[in-house]
Amino acid sequence: MTSKASKAVSKWLTKFDETLTARHEQAAVKLFKKDCYWRDLISFTWNIITLEGRPAIEAMLKDTLANLKPSNWQIEGEAKEAEGIVEGWFTFETKVARGRGILRLKDGKCWTLLTTMVELKGHEEMKGQRRIMGTEHGVARNRKSWLQLKQEEEARLGYTEQPYCVIIGGGQGGIALGARMRRLGVPTIIVEKNERPGDSWRKRYKTLCLHDPVWYDHLPYLRFPDDWPVFSPKDKLGDWLEMYTKVMELNYWGSTLCESASYDEAKKEWTVNVVRDGKHIALHPKQLVLATGMSSVPNAPKFPGMENFKGDQHHSSQHPGPDAYAGKKCVVIGSNNSAHDICAALWEVSADVTMVQRSSTHVSRSKTLMELDLGPVYSEKALAQGIDVDKADMIVASYPYKIAAQRQILVAKEIAMRDADFYERLEKAGFMHDWGDDGSGLGTKYMRRGSGYYIDVGASELICDGRIKLKTRVSVQEIKEHSVLFSDGSELPADLIVYATGYGSMNGWAAMLISQDVADKVGKCWGLGSNTTKDPGPWEGEPSNMWKPTQQEALWFHGGNLHQSRHYSQFLSLQLKAHMEGIPTPVYGKAPVYHKI
Amino acid sequence: MTSKASKAVSKWLTKFDETLTARHEQAAVKLFKKDCYWRDLISFTWNIITLEGRPAIEAMLKDTLANLKPSNWQIEGEAKEAEGIVEGWFTFETKVARGRGILRLKDGKCWTLLTTMVELKGHEEMKGQRRIMGTEHGVARNRKSWLQLKQEEEARLGYTEQPYCVIIGGGQGGIALGARMRRLGVPTIIVEKNERPGDSWRKRYKTLCLHDPVWYDHLPYLRFPDDWPVFSPKDKLGDWLEMYTKVMELNYWGSTLCESASYDEAKKEWTVNVVRDGKHIALHPKQLVLATGMSSVPNAPKFPGMENFKGDQHHSSQHPGPDAYAGKKCVVIGSNNSAHDICAALWEVSADVTMVQRSSTHVSRSKTLMELDLGPVYSEKALAQGIDVDKADMIVASYPYKIAAQRQILVAKEIAMRDADFYERLEKAGFMHDWGDDGSGLGTKYMRRGSGYYIDVGASELICDGRIKLKTRVSVQEIKEHSVLFSDGSELPADLIVYATGYGSMNGWAAMLISQDVADKVGKCWGLGSNTTKDPGPWEGEPSNMWKPTQQEALWFHGGNLHQSRHYSQFLSLQLKAHMEGIPTPVYGKAPVYHKI
Q1: Which residues of A touch B221 (CB under 8 A)?
Q2: Which of A312, A505, B302, B559 has its CA 20 to 30 A from that of A394?
Q3: pTM: predicted TM-score of the whole model, two decimal places
Q4: How far is the C-alpha of A406 from the C-alpha of A401, rounded, in Å?
């Protein structure tokens, strides 16, 4: 017995199918509301793009339909209706791929449409029914065991045989993408400067745990077991990444530093120079992915007098942890995530610590965020409702960023209400708190600028009651031999200064490894173009350069938090697989470069 | 809308509940058919036992009901009806535990009942909603990180703090049980003579793969990813076991040899003497589990003249693999699993190999077994029908061994039909093939004697066409300096003799480690008492000594194939947890010891 909502969805899909098959773009867009959004994760556009409004959608269809041959639009499961919005899932096909999506209707017309590519026809993952046997039935003289084949591949790849793809950076992003590539049969080497997978976590200061809850953090294909802590201790996560890398059979080159890379336009090939266990090796992949981390190119601080300082000073990325600073005077310049973590850890060893806040920060308490923001889709409760992590990723993806921001405003209001007392105490302590330029809070700030927030796991209480001292509404005038001088004339003695001054765009890595020209050519990574603080316009509607084609041929950027590393590795790996297989990937709507940094 | 079948199940459960609550054992058994079976996995009996017939059930209820307080019998999901049998799942409670089971009705009366314990009230696993946070919200001076706590535990357990339980044997059995124990918070050390988890697989000859398909082989809590090969290559499985041991945070003492163990009746404590990295350590657990392997105490061959043989000779367990024997004359005495594997591997290096078959063997082809025997519950198809591995384990457990044997006869007939040509060729080659004493084939032979079969992954084809030579219907008369002399007067030259002469009962380990007295006290492990070849009566209906209380206080045996290691570790771990928590565990129906070996 099909529900009314399901009938509405099926009816819409049928009409949509008809217009697309007949290539009547005008008729197709009439199925959309005026205020409409179509977010496509590569299936139509070989891009990650949100088309807003009918004209944009019509233009895309005009450009793509001829070769695409979309078909077989089927509702998946039962649609549902709430507050005037009908929401349904569906599957579809194109000439080369199978896809899945989510549709939202208002008054029978499409408000939001998400289309995603699930797999390439003829290049499906060898899983489930298609999984490999592992052993040949029968016997064969001199056949090689799994171990032999693996060891031979390890001896060969990067030496006598070139990988199709090299990923620079073996953190969660590189590892998640590597796992997808392995499954798709794309020979890939992951290059990581640390020795073991997980080291980038192990080397962090000792009490660090993830600030996102477990249901949000799974890697592709192999979920954390159901007794995994809500907030992963860093070493436990490190161990998981290490075993994951092993059982997923990734070609992981630890203790390997990438020195430089350059693209040969004629050969359509990169030269990537690495040093592995002291040996210089030149790799020649067709594709290069930088997965060096959203927060990895430090914003080097520049304050007058730094060279005179007699104590320890370093950027937060170089902070070794609090152990050497028990009882010392510590000044931390900055007030976002790193600053809070570092201040709290210093307080824990009884250091005398002052946070210097130069601009406002948004704070959401971790538990509250977990319950009000992520909870509806990433939680035990969600699991009990049948929303597993793959479904949750799709649901999140189905809200274009513009709409997501509006929804976030509502969530932020709930958070403000629930933690009213907390925010009152925080502001009473003098902390400059904001809710984002438009009140949309943490998630949106994260997407717009990757900074300017703190997910509170305890430091804020220390600020509220003064255990972490606060200096606000000043700028740094000068660093002196034993102190920091501020713009209001005040001075703080210091044995340690930590510059929690943030990170620059990942194309900084392109500048360091490849060239400034290439870095300028591709432009800034991340940011939506919302014309809010640190996210200048014009509006792109998707994080610049992430997981999709850039202005530099065969150069890609992968990263984000664990959710994004997981979900978007699917679409990046499919693009790379298509390239390897010679499947045409005509890109629609590649964004121009508006900002270089 | 409740189906007729569901109504029948609910009705029966309600009546059953009433009779149990009123303690009317006579009325309770009237709800059962005359030909009935109640298989209980510890929930009623703190034993692993099948009660057959109403008198047996009545006697058990008379003995257990007073303290048990069973209640809250609820149907779970929808029941179904097929061929006159109504089958439904249910949950229930006792005073101390929660349980789950499967009921089968014929004409409204119970034909088979399975009751299993799921968890102890107040001692539930910390998973799902109850999982630990991983980090304290807030901050605390000098708090310890996860890594510190773990390292401190490793430094302490077995040295300054005694584990509650020691498991001897760190293969899949010890590891699966160890994972359950960890989740239940029972401090446990696993002692393993090899260095790394998985080594017992790595050290096998190179082309070995599992003969059971992946859906059957999962470990508890963390299933193989969905692209895992159907038949795990040994080294890949080794890697999985190694990483599983790590991420499950097991206290695994590799390179540790157990030398002896003895029980102190007064202190109610074991002394287990081990050598770890050269150091002698005495452990004092309250409970000792032998998980040394169903196939681990070799049946040492004794043939006249062995001491004269000039070539290589060893039991199959000591066979290093075929590499040194290319082109050599190899005689393998035995015709079951090990013999076949070894012969095939030798043939692959072009050795001249003869299998000496002294008694008949049952052979089922792996692919056929996978499809016809395991397929209904352990397969992609089963998964698509919602039968995951936990459900599959319950379904298999719900058939008492007597009934399972009858069902197996039907399966064996199907197998015989499907592979008729194969069996014809095998027998034409002279191979002595059987279907078990009653035609019930492989699974039943496995449960009755743990031997006498081969799951064919290719060796049989080599026998069919003579590439592996066969000598049958003889016994070994004498081993000479360069040959084997047979009872029919024939003689085979040999550079290598492999005695694939099987394994003895696991209580042989008890004899070696503890004492012959204790080994005799507990008696033979495995076997059902079916009064068939190598499984002498009387009928027990459950494998002797496995996963349940033995005649030696605080001594337990764990093992079996991957399915049994996984499923029965649940019940063994719950018994051990109950003991640790001081929850009374009155054992009903502990079997007497009928056979010492």
Answers
A1: 225-227
A2: A505
A3: 0.92
A4: 9
